Amino acid sequence: MIPVILFHADFQMFSGGFIGVDVFFVISGYLITSIIVNDLHQDKFSVLRFYERRARRILPALFLVMAVTCIFAYEWMLPDELKNFGQSILATTLFSNNILLAITTNYWSLSAEFKPLLHTWSLGVEEQYYVLFPLLLMLGWKLFRKHLAAVLGVAAILSFAAANWGLFNKPEFDYYLLPTRAWEILIGALAAFYIIGKKSASSKYLLSELLGGTGFCLIVASVFILGRDNASRGIFYLVAPTLGTALIILFSSENTVVGKILGWDPMVGVGLISYSAYLWHQPLFSLARVYSKEPPGIAVYSILSVLTLILAYITWRFIETPCRNKDKVGRKVIFSFALGLSIAFALFGFYLDRNYGIVSRIYDTSKVTPSDLDKRIYNERVFQKKMDSFPLDRKLKLLVIGNSFARDFVNMTTETFDVEKVDIVYRDDFSECITPFDNKTAEELYGVADVIVFASGNVIERCLSDNIRFAQERNKDLFYAGTKDFGYNLNWIMRLDPKNRPNQWNQVSSASLDADAYVSRIVPKDNYISMMKPTVKDGYIPITDADGRLISIDRAHVTKFGAIYFGQRVLLESRYGEILKRRGVLPILSA
Questions:
Q1: CB 173 within 8 A of CB 166
Q2: Beta strands 505-507 and 528-529: pairing type?
Q3: What are the two backbone dihedrals, phi and then psi, of residue 531, each rounded to the nearest 5 degrees?
Q4: Kind of pairing, strands 540-542 and 396-402?
């Protein structure tokens, strides 16, 4: 647990701290399987009692952390983040946040840093496993008890193989979903079967010391040596910490060195509060980022790490411990509590999602609507222009190629110019190399277009000369639109008095400024539209307009007001704008 906290606190020394979750899965598989198999041996296993224990163990502390997080998220988060938070609340309540994250995000992306409930994906994996595992174990116990461990071993091998394949083909799904995580839990389950069957892994003291010590070294080395880049080498990089955990389980006892280390009172104390500490650390770190204008420093993270342990102890002492005591909290109470709060959290999360993070907290919704801000509504309208051919008329033909930045560019154009005299086609499925043509549709569109714009925030340099030559030889105009960056965090706008919200600025990352400078050097001046040079001053970029309306909602893409702002200050006076005006495409008079 401690390595996970220090890893998420950006302590570079603990670059492999993320393996704490993998260690947790192995330990969890061992403990839960031991409980179930021992009960099955005594013919007293109860599914209801099993789920009651899980509810007592998981829900009270989880719901406390969620409730506290909801208060600060509501006060500090902009609508886009709060909408996303609402989805996380709903998914966490249903123990499916891992599925939501696999579908909607990249774990290492910047946006992940602003998700207070990001870490509950691991609870989703664990609880999904333990919805199915007891039932399958009961069935296997009746039908093929002698071969049950072998079947679990085969399942672990298949899961491991799927995980290695998924890492290179579906990395987000691979990281978050149960089928590609089950092998880690099954390692713990197999360790439980071995110990129950053999009573002890080894009676030889020296062998136990050697293997237990090896396991401990594998885990410690993984924490300090592994890093995010190791993922590119395959899932085999996780064998060290998971195998190390299994070796400690199998061969360490109170008589071994490793056993004595792990049995040391401070280590035991940390273990007792580890679940609550895991729950608290991510909301504390994430909300600190939401609050901060710039990335929090090591001093802030150090204070929050200590606060995590303090809150963890309080939660363990006054929430976890009493709720596990059946004499203090009966079964009916715990299930009623679980059902009632689950419904409440699910409804609240659904409300935040459906109401786009409650725009009325920051704006008069008669003047600023969710559709003006939400890129899922505003920017996605551009897909209506994803056509296979241009109309047969005499209008100017504009072809825009690229990703979400290209959708931004289309919106900037339509908010700035009267496009009644323009036929616009947008494609997100063409490469940035005009020739060889991707297909007949690409050949036709490139052939008919009068103006071609590539807008993905970067340039494929090997195609640059050929693309420009293609346009020049056919008397077409070709442009590359540069990248955009609205700084580290926008949520601090929430805390400003409305009268202070107009004309606010954020510092642009040096990486984005360098990228813009690089592209401006390799692309001829007449072919490049920089989004940075006309808007950035002394390294800062505007994030609200003169009326205090957000130019961007997610630090990368523009809102309706951002499209107007960039259109007026970038496109209107660019060579691209001059070409449109010469062809009779007049500007829209806009503030």
A1: yes
A2: unpaired
A3: -85, -20
A4: unpaired
Residue 178 corresponds to which amino acid? L
Q: Rounded to an integer, what distance in angstroms lies between the CA atom of residue 514 and that of residue 534? A: 15
Locate 215 and state its tokens: 């396991």
User: Are residues 569 and 536 in contact, defined by beta-carbon separation less than 8 angstroms?
Assistant: no
Query: Across the chain, what does the average pLDDT equal?
Result: 91
Per-residue DSSP letter, 231: G
Block residue for tokens 């870490």: 119
The residue with tokens 């339509």 is 414
Asked if residues 588 and 413 have their Cβ atoms less than 8 Å apart, the reply is: no
- Which structure tokens are listed for 145? 């008890």
User: Smallest Cα–Cα separation from 125: which of 234, 228, 22?
Assistant: 22
By CB neighbour count within 10 A (0-12 exposed, 13-18 middle, 19+ buried), where does 572 fall? buried
Distance CA 539, CA 4 (A): 34
At 524, list the tokens: 């001829």
Quick one: which H or E segment has residue 570?
Answer: none
3-state helix, strand, coil in the chain (%, to 5): 65, 5, 25
Confidence of residue 198 (pLDDT cuts 50, 70, 90): confident
Walk across the sheet containing 477-481 and list its strands.
422-427, 396-402, 451-455, 477-481, 528-529
Give CA–CA dist 263/266, Å, rounded: 8
- DSSP states along 105-155: --TTSGGGGG-TTGGGHHHHHHHHHHHHHHHHHHHHHHH-GGGHHHHHHHH
Determine the longest span between alpha carbons in the chain, in angstroms: 90
Structure tokens at 52: 């009651």
Q: How far is it, in rounded angstroms, from Cα 295 to Cα 372?
A: 28
Check: CB of residue 416 under 8 Å from CB of residue 562: no
∠45-49-51 over CA atoms, to 5°? 115
Q: What is the pLDDT of residues 49-95, one digit of tens each?
A: 999 999 999 999 999 999 999 999 999 999 999 999 999 999 999 99
CB of 392 within 8 A of CB of 399? Answer: no
328, containing H or E segment: none
pTM of the model: 0.89
- Mapping DSSP onto H, E and C, the string for 415-432 reads HHECHHHEEEEEECCCCC
Angle, helices 148-169 vs 121-143, to 10°: value is 150
Q: Are 373 and 356 in contact (CB under 8 A)?
A: yes
Q: In the structure encoding, which two tokens stand for residue 411, read together?
A: 């919106």
**Cα separation, 399 vs 80, whole angstroms:** 30
CA–CA separation, 482 and 423 (whole Å) = 23
Question: How far is the CA of 548 from the CAs of 163, 497, 538, 552, 559, in angstroms?
Answer: 47, 10, 21, 12, 13
Q: How high is the pLDDT of residue 229?
A: 59
